[in-house]
Structures are given as C-alpha cells and as structure tokens.
C-alpha cells in the first residue's frame, strides 16, 4: 500500500506539471517576443550612437563643411494666374452664367408679346388675347426695383475694381490679422 500511495502522489505531481506546461510555453513565447522587441530597440539605439559619434568626430576634425552658397528665396507674388486677371475672369464668367441662366427658360418655353408674333410662330389664326394688367402698386414699384438692380450691379462692379486694384494688399492685411 505504501508504494501504491507513493506512486499515486507521483502521478498527481506529474499531472500538475503536464497541466502547467501550456502556461509555461505561453510565458516563454511572450518573453521571447519582448526580448526581440527590446533587442531591436537596442540595436537601433547603438546604430544611432555610432552615427552620432561619426558625425561628432567629423565636426571636430573639420572634415565636413557646410556652406550656404546662395540663400533660398521665393517671391511672394504667385507666378500664375495673375490675381487681377483671375478675378476679372471670375466676374465675367459669373455675370455671363447668371444672364445665361436667366435667358435659358425663355428659350425652352418662349413667350409672345403680341398676337401677330404668336400667329406667325404657330401659323394659326389668333382669336383673342389678354393684355397684362398691372396694379398701380406694381407700376409704381418698377422704377424702385430697377434702381435697386442698378445699385447692386454697381456695388458688384465697385467691389471687383477695389479687389483688382488693392487685392494683394488686402489679402496681406487679412493674412496678418489671421496669424
């Protein structure tokens, strides 16, 4: 009995060792990974140290000399496109697009101002027409609306002229305010 009990204890101990083997293997793999990362960092630091020593030795011995032959320079004005021409081009294209979009609907669905034009376009007789009746308020408001349109167009043109003439100085002042 004593020998059997002894063997049973040894079997239990050996099973504990067998059960703990995967944990030991995992710990071993983790340690190897950590060692690899640490070794790579160490080798990188050694290489940087060697490079710093070589650079320091070269600077002390005067082997390497740096001279600025011509200082770098850059013009502050853009090379292309010229800002004034670009703004004028944008103004012309914008106004042209606005006029084109205003005229476009009348090209697809034309209107006729008198019965003769309608008869000529359709080649059918016109039996009657309805004239446009405007209320007195609408008739009185028309010159005011025209003046508003002229003022807005003048303001747009004035802003374009100011930007063309003083655009670069305004942008520099704006840039200095931002920074």
Helix share of residues?
over 70%
Major β-sheet profile: none
Distance between the termini: 93 Å
Helix and strand content put the structural class at mainly alpha
Q: What average pLDDT do the residues reach?
A: 84
Shape: elongated
Low-confidence stretches: none
Total of DSSP H or I helical runs spanning 4+ residues: 4
How would you summarize this macromolecular structure in one to three sentences?
With 179 residues, the protein is mainly alpha-helical.
Helix/strand layout:
Elements: H1 2-61, H2 83-108, H3 115-122, H4 136-178
Describe this structure in words.
- By secondary structure, the chain is mainly α.
- Helix content is 77%, strand content 0%.
- Helix 2 runs antiparallel to helix 4.
Give the key terms:
single chain; 179 residues; mainly alpha; 4 helices; elongated
